[in-house]
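Quarterly update, task 2.4: phenylalanine-bound model.
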Amino acid sequence: MSFDWTTIEQEAQKEINQASSAEAIEALRIKYLGRQGLLAGITGSISSLSAQERPEFGKKANYLKNKLTRLFEERVSQLKEKEAHGLETFDITLPGEPIPQTGSLHPITQTIQEITAIFSKLGFVTKEGPEVENEYNNFSGLNIPLDHPSRDAFDTFYLKSPQSTVHSPQSVDKRYGLSTMDYRLLLRSHTSPVQIRVMKEHKPPLAVIVPGKVYRPDAVDASHSFVFHQIEGFLVDQEVSFADLKGTLTAFAQRLFGEKIQMRFRPHFFPFTEPSAEVDISCILCSRKPRADSREPKRCSVCGGKGWLEILGCGMIHPNVFANVGYPKDKYSGFAFGMGIERIAMLKYGINDIRLFYENDLRFLRQF
Ligand code: PHE
C-alpha cells in the first residue's frame, strides 16, 4: 500500500491555515488526528504490510502525526494572537475608541484666567504676592488702624513662631501713639497687601491685577471657607478719577457676564480707599426673566428677589496709602478693587456650595 504522503501533508496544511475559528480547527483536528480520523486509518492499515515495509511506513506516519499536531498548535496560537489584537474583526469604518478624558483646569483657575485675560486687554499686568505676609503690608500700610476688628485673631490667622515678628522701618503707627512696632507674620486676609509691595517697588503709572489665595478663620459652610481666592486690581497715575474706575469695572463686568449686565455702585467704607463703594451687577438669573405676575414676585434663587448681586469692593486709593509707600504728596491718584473669585465662579456657573471647589470630586470637576 502506498500513500501520497506529501499531498496529504499539503492538503492538511492548507485546510488548517484556512480554519479561522477554534471550532473549525477542532473539526479538522478530529478529521485528521481523531480516533477515527485519517491518521488512525493509515496506521490501522499497517497490519496489511510486509515486515520490510513496516518501519518505513511507521516513520512516515509518525512524521505526519507530529507535523499535523504542530500545525494545529501553531494555528491555535496564531488565532489567539489575532483575536487579542482585534485584527481578525477589525472594521476600519468603525469610529475610534474614545480617548479617556484628559484633565482640565480647575474652575477657579479657569475663572482667574478669564478675569486676568479681560484686564490684560485693558492694559493691566498680572503680579503675585506671598500668602505669608506681615502685619504692616496686610494692615498698617493700608491705613487699617490698630484697633480695627479685622486685625483681631478671630479674623486673621497669625503665625505664632518666635521668628514671626518682623521689624518694619515704617513708622505709620505713630499716628496711634506708637513710634515703631514689631509686625507679626500672618496669612494674608486679602490680596490688598500686594498694592503696598508693588507701589513700594515701582513708580506710577501702574495698572496691576493680583490673583491669589487669602485666609480667614471663618467656619466652613456653603458660602464660607477658611481659604479662598481674590483678585485685586489697582491703577495709579496722575489725574485718575472715579469715572475711570467706573468705566474699567463696567467694561470688565460686561465682558465677563454679558453686555446686558447693569452696574450699581453703593457707597461703602474701606480704610484704604476714599471714597469707597461696593459694586453690584443686575441679577444674571432673574433680571433676564420678566416675572409672570408682578404682584407676587418670585423669590429668585440667585439674588433672593433683590435683583442685584454684590461682586466686589472698590474705591479711590487713600492718600495715606500713597504716603505709606513713599509717593510724593498730591502727585498721584488711583483706584483699587478686590473681588472674591469663588463668588464670581459660583454666579457664573450656578454653583450653590463653595465647598465643591475644594473637595476634588471628579463628578463636579469633570463639568468644567
Ligand atoms: N480688600 C478688600 C476686601 O478684602 C476688597 C477691596 C480691595 C476693597 C480694594 C477696596 C479696594 O474686602
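Highlight for this quarter: The chain has a mean pLDDT of 88.
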